[in-house]
Structures are given as C-alpha cells and as structure tokens.
Design goal:
Keywords: Signal. It comes from Sphingobium indicum BiD32. It holds the Pfam family Amidohydro_1. This is Amidohydrolase-related domain-containing protein. This protein has 468 residues and is α/β, with parallel strands linked by helices. It folds into 3 domains: 38 residues, no CATH class; 100 residues, Urease, subunit C, domain 1 (Roll), CATH 2.30.40; 282 residues, Metal-dependent hydrolases (TIM Barrel), CATH 3.20.20.140. The protein is built from 10 helices and 21 strands. Strands 3, 4, 5, 6, 7, 18, 19, 20 and 21 form a 9-stranded mixed β-sheet that branches. A hairpin with a 2-residue loop joins strand 20 and strand 21. Helix 9 crosses helix 10. The N and C termini lie far apart (70 Å). The structure holds zinc ion. The site of zinc ion has 4 residues, from strand 8.
Length: 468
C-alpha cells in the first residue's frame, strides 16, 4: 500500500459521543472518522452517501476463462462471481458454488481482469470539432467529455483521473458517472490546475485551455492554500498543481490538501520537481527533467510517478523536440526523457499508468494506452507487471486500493473480459470484449449499454377505466 505522509496519526479523545460511552479513538486520517454502519460514496473523499440498489440484479458469473486478478502475476483458471456492484468471490476452476438462478457468461478462451485505470486524461478538453466559442462552455465541455469517456469505457478503462478542465464541467461529469447516470468510467476529477501567475497552463502563448476557466493562478502561500480550499469546495477528488511556485507556496498547498483528505499531484520539472518532492506531494506527472537526487528522494518518500510517455514521444516524433513555452525553459529529447523513466524504475519509484489523453486523441484509444504500457515493458516490466501498474498500483496511488484495482471479494465490480492473454501480450488489450462497471454490463458485443430504467407506477387511484 502506498500511504502518504498525510496519514499522520493523531490521537483524539472523543468522550460521550456514542451513547454516553467514553471512547478513546485514534483517527489516522479523515477516512477513519466513520462508523461501521456508515455508507460512503465510492470516491476518494468517501463522503457519506445513502445506500442504494446498484449494479447487476441477481448474480453474474464469468466462467470458463482465465482469471488475471492483479494480485498474483500469473493468470489461472477460475470464475468471477458478481452480485450488485461488488465482486463476491473468485472461485477455483471446477467450483460451481453460485446460486442456481445466476446468469452465466461463458468466457472460454478469454481473460477476465480488473478494469483499467488511466491516471491522466483531460476528458472535457476541446476536440477538433469543438467550435471556438464553445471551448469554455460548461455544457459543451460536459457533453464532449461524455463522448470522449465512452471511447475509454469501450476499451476497458473503467476509472480515470481527470487532470483539469473548465469551470464545473469536470465535477459535473464525475458526479453523473458516479451515480451511473450515463455510460463512462468513474471520473476522479481535479477540476482546474493551480499554478503560479504565468505558470504552466497559464503561460504564453495563451490559448482557451490556458484561460482562467481551466487554470487557477495563485500567488503567495495564503493564496495557494485558498486555491486548494476553493478546489475542494467545487468537488475535487484530488488536487493538481503545476510549476511554477515558490517553496512556501507548494508546501502550503500540500499541507492544506492533505488536511482536507485530498492527494496532490504535480505537473512540474527541474527545480520545481525538487521543491514539490520536498514539500511531500503524492505523485509527479510526466517524464520531464529531474535530478538523480530528486529521483532518489521520490523513492524514499513513496512519491509516485505517472510518466505519460507516449504523449511526449508523440511530440518528439512530430516536432523533433519538446516545444518549450514561456514557463518551461529547458529542452529535452526522446532518449533523455526515456532515461528519466529508467532511472525512476531503477530507484524503486512507484510507477502508475496514465496517457494524458486529450481532445481528438481520444479517438486513438486504446493505442495510446497500450503504447504507454509498452514503454514500461521496454524498461523491463513483464506484461503482467505492466497490467498490475495499470490496475492495482493506479488504484493505490488514488487512495482507492481498498475498492478498485484487483479482482478480490469485496471490491467494486469494475471488471473486463479480453479476447486474448493481455498478461502475456499487451497488444491483446485492443480486444476488450466485455466491460462491467459498478456491476453493470456496459459494453458487450461491440455496443455500449445503459441499464433500462424501471418505470415508476402512476399514483392511484383513478385509472381511465374507472371513469364513466
Ligand atoms: Zn495533462
């Protein structure tokens, strides 16, 4: 488990709160401040939620195929049993201990595995079809996110971290998808990026996606703290910051976010990565230059990396170099970029998987995702280890390791069936055959499904037949 420094043990005495019994209770973090009967939403904030019927009605069994559970690195023969929105058991081959009325899906010759997670997308960003006057329109942004996210869902990506978008659009799409009100992955939204005035995502040349709708510029430690609180208020699942900043600013932001129970990830480079790592952020996005000492410190402090290799490689392939902007004053090349990844792996840095998928590039799904996994394979990962990074490790980095990322009894039923052996050949990830998200079959036979609504009865009495 990756548990960051924010989980500072604080012993709090609460006396007389529960039926007059004096209790000494130790709160390790905000999430532990709950009672056994309390239901919490399946998001990193774990906000109290009403219990509701959700997922598959009855029992769903996927049987006859290979199980890659992302706990073990070897696939095995077995069956996955789902009830409502939870995995209830993984049965060994030969066992049929499920209810007689269960719905059985034969997955012979296929592999069942946890849904994939993409740690870095911008689902609300404009696509090439977006009219110029709609780039900061929340309604347009929410609908184009829905379209882009469906392309991920079709390809077995059942959760994403959304890493910035305009105004409330990222939070709106997150809330709708959490409630199964549209087909799409779970969206853990950052909302806007917080950066220093003129910093990354607010630097020249200014574009609509670098406007105030997408980016919160902050100056001074107090303002950085305030920006974190504003982002929390809007509904963020995590905080995304970007260089540039001063050491006291990044420290204030990280401290405030952790106190609120949110993780912080940083899109930064060179000296800023060192400052962010010293301040105790939870992860660093992108490959981007950093010193060997900073890489060692990332490993020591358990700070993860989401390298997003392919999007940078795409830039090198088309332009030959990383196009610097006003705030990014360095150059780099394909090999030095890849060397950063190799050094991080050698140092033992936790590596997650994210694509930085954006705009028109969503139409290239799943190729971008597979390409990112192949960078890990090139750097020494087996396909199975790359899949574990894409599922279990990603869930842990998001603080969702207890609910997502593996096939285990009690986990949320985000499950995919692949027509092949992706744990042996990553290209087989292009053959996602079935997607179950929150216990609902949402992709089957090449189509997206939404559960049909159950009609509410009309108020009684007075059917027309009673009238004369
Ligand atoms: Zn990004």
């Amino acid at each position: 488990m990756i548990h960051s420094t924010r989980h500072l043990a604080r012993a709090l005495l609460i006396g007389g709160l529960l039926g007059g019994t004096a209790l000494a209770q130790e709160f390790h973090d905000r999430r532990t401040v709950q009672f056994p009967t309390q239901v919490t939403a399946d998001n990193p904030q774990r906000t109290p939620a009403k219990a509701r019927e959700q997922g598959f009605k009855g029992t769903l069994v996927l049987t006859g195929g290979r199980v890659f559970d992302a706990v073990k690195s070897q696939a095995y023969a077995g069956s996955v049993v789902i009830q409502q929105n939870k995995i209830v058991s993984i049965l060994p081959a030969g066992s049929t201990s499920w209810p007689a009325e269960a719905t059985i899906v034969d997955i012979s010759g296929k592999t069942v595995m946890p849904g994939l997670i993409d740690m870095h997308v911008h689902s609300t960003y404009p696509t090439p079809e977006t009219p110029a006057d709609m780039t900061v329109n929340e309604g347009h942004a929410t609908l184009r996110a829905l379209r882009s996210l469906q392309m991920l869902l079709e390809n077995g990506i059942t959760s994403v971290r959304d890493m910035s978008g305009p105004l409330a659009a990222p939070y709106v799409i997150s809330e709708w998808l959490e409630k199964d009100m549209a087909p799409g992955p779970r969206v853990f939204a950052a909302g806007h990026i917080i950066t220093g005035t003129g910093g990354h995502a607010a630097d020249r040349p200014l574009t609509p996606i670098h406007s105030a709708a997408y980016t919160r510029e902050a100056d001074g430690a107090d303002d950085w703290r305030k920006a974190v609180r504003e982002t929390f208020k809007m509904g963020a699942s995590h905080i995304k910051i970007a260089s540039h900043f001063a050491p006291d600013e990044v420290k204030a932001a990280v401290e405030e976010a952790h106190r609120l129970g949110l993780k912080v990830t940083c899109d930064c480079e060179t000296i800023y990565t060192t400052m962010a790592v010293e301040a105790g952020v939870d992860s660093i996005e992108h490959p981007l230059p950093r010193t060997d000492a900073t890489i060692r410190m990332m490993a020591q402090k358990g700070i993860a990396s989401i390298p997003t290799m392919q999007v940078y490689q795409g830039g090198f392939d088309t332009r030959g170099d990383y196009a610097g902007t006003a705030s990014r004053r360095f150059s780099m090349a394909s090999q030095t970029n890849y060397d950063v990844l190799k050094k991080m792996i050698a140092a033992g840095v936790t590596i997650g998987v994210g694509t930085d998928n954006i705009g028109g590039a969503f139409a290239s799904t799943p190729n971008i995702y597979i390409a990112d996994l192949k960078f890990l394979q090139k750097a020494g990962y087996t396909p199975a280890k790359a899949l574990i990074a894409a599922t279990r490790v990603n869930a842990q980095i998001m603080d969702m390791g207890d609910k997502l990322g593996t096939l285990e009894a009690g986990k949320l039923a985000d499950v995919i069936v692949v027509a092949g052996n992706p744990d042996q050949n990553l290209d087989d990830l292009a053959k996602v055959d079935m997607v179950i998200r929150n216990g609902n079959i949402v992709v089957q036979d090449g189509r997206i499904f939404m559960p049909r609504h159950v009609p509410n009865p009309l108020p009684k009495p007075s059917p027309p037949e009673a009238l004369k």
